[in-house]
Design a protein that fits this description.
This protein has about 400 residues and is α/β, with parallel strands linked by helices. The chain is about 50% helix and about 5% strand. The chain has 16 helices and six strands. Strands 2-1-3-4-5-6 form a six-stranded mixed sheet. Helix 11 packs across helix 16.
Length: about 400
């Protein structure tokens, strides 16, 4: 290769590297997905309803914020559990670290990450049977985002710079700079991790908030792979680790609509769900006997909140307590927190039961009786559910 050719290649590669460095630097600066922001003007920027790479932003933000109270779970907790309730926790800082699409394996990684980067006084952890598996969820919890060890922020900076070389991030950076980003709601970071309700009610948001979303959400819940034995063992180990770190734990089973629990019955998963509840009650009791401040509550079932009539029967598009079958509104979240921690919010008497080894048998017998009563009183909803479970699944 002659001198001219070598010079040409050197110039070409130098220009290419300079271009890539410039693209990465601009993407890092504009940060369209808020990968490395906390309490900055950028988190107030309006964004599209779909919050891309939320787990990147939340794992960084919780490390910067170092909250005393952390919520863990999937989209149900992210959307439904309010963060502006400091009076319940004596003014302590709160952050909702739940992310959409999280399996219990994802949630474990997020919980342990929060405990590593902050002194977590209280952790509120929402769970449900279908997502209680170690299978990879859709949350995108990559190993580097929650890895332990020193120099967390230096390692995150390298990850963020690398992410800045992607086409999608470059495209969205250009959309922001050109004023065509189509922002309609706030990032969850602007609300201490809770999903902005404006994202859900926006007309361009297609997966919750409408009667049309009932069928796919019921199918999704009934098709879930959990609960699994490996997930229970991993959850047990994680609870033990958090307990040894001095964290107060409040575990709660999500109050999805009664039809979702009924979907497990019609799919032949009721017995597995009951065994899972018994295992969780035993797990909590064992850790309490070892000195851990841990409690387990069940907000699911067939109660005055979860049995709210559905749009397919009432003809009314919006519900009082639910966005659709799978996701509850934050007024229900206020009930949950009031049952767990007290406060001035009056909670319906039948909403939220503490599960212990002594109470579990009676609770499950009452739930089975309530299920049969629901079938009798809500024949139209039951027929709708059974039909919905036979329909083809919508592509994701």
């Amino acid at each position: 290769m002659d001198t001219t050719a070598r010079r040409y290649l050197a110039i070409f590669f130098a220009c290419a590297l300079a271009a890539l460095a410039l693209i990465s630097a601009v993407n890092y600066r504009v940060d369209p997905y808020l990968l490395h922001q906390w309490d900055t003007p950028l988190v107030q920027r309006l964004r599209p309803t779909y919050e891309k790479l939320a787990v990147w932003g939340k794992t960084y933000a919780v490390a910067r914020y170092r909250p005393a109270v952390v919520y863990i779970g999937n989209s149900r907790t992210e959307m439904g559990l309010p963060t502006r309730v400091r009076a319940l926790f004596d003014g302590k800082s709160i952050f909702n670290s739940a992310v959409s699409g999280a399996s219990i394996g994802d949630a474990i990684r997020l919980a342990e990450h929060a405990a590593r980067v902050s002194h977590v006084d209280t952790m509120v952890w929402g769970i449900d049977a279908p997502s209680f598996s170690l299978e990879l969820g859709s949350a995108g919890v990559e190993p580097g985002l929650t890895a332990g060890g020193p120099a967390f922020f230096a390692r995150r900076a390298l990850l963020n710079i690398k992410r800045g070389l992607t086409v999608d991030m470059t495209r969205d950076t250009w959309r922001i700079l050109s004023g065509t980003y189509d922002g309609v709601c706030l990032s969850s970071l602007a609300l201490d991790g809770q999903r902005d309700q404006g994202c859900i009610t926006a007309r361009k948001h297609g997966w919750v908030g409408t009667a049309r979303a009932f069928t796919p959400r019921l199918q999704e819940f009934g098709d879930g792979q959990g609960p699994t034995a490996p997930a229970l063992r991993a959850f047990d180990a994680s609870v033990g680790k958090l307990c040894r770190g001095g964290t107060r734990l409040r575990l709660y089973i999500n109050p999805t609509h009664a039809l979702t629990l009924d979907a497990l019955y019609w799919r032949g998963k009721w017995d597995a769900m009951e065994q899972w509840q018994r295992d969780l009650a035993q797990l909590a009791q064992r850790h309490r006997s070892e000195g851990c401040d841990v409690r387990l509550y069940d907000f699911s079932g067939f109660n005055s909140i979860t049995s709210e009539p559905i749009p397919q029967v009432t003809g009314v598009r919006e519900m009082r307590y639910y966005w659709e079958a799978s996701h509850y509104r934050d007024n229900v979240g206020h009930f949950i927190l009031a049952r767990l921690f007290g406060g001035e919010v009056p909670v319906p008497a039948d909403f939220g039961v503490e599960l212990t080894e002594g109470s579990i048998a009676a609770h499950q017998a009452a739930m089975r009786a309530a299920r049969e009563g629901y079938h009798a009183r809500h024949a139209a909803e039951t027929a709708y559910l059974r039909h919905a479970l036979t329909l083809p699944r919508e592509p994701k």
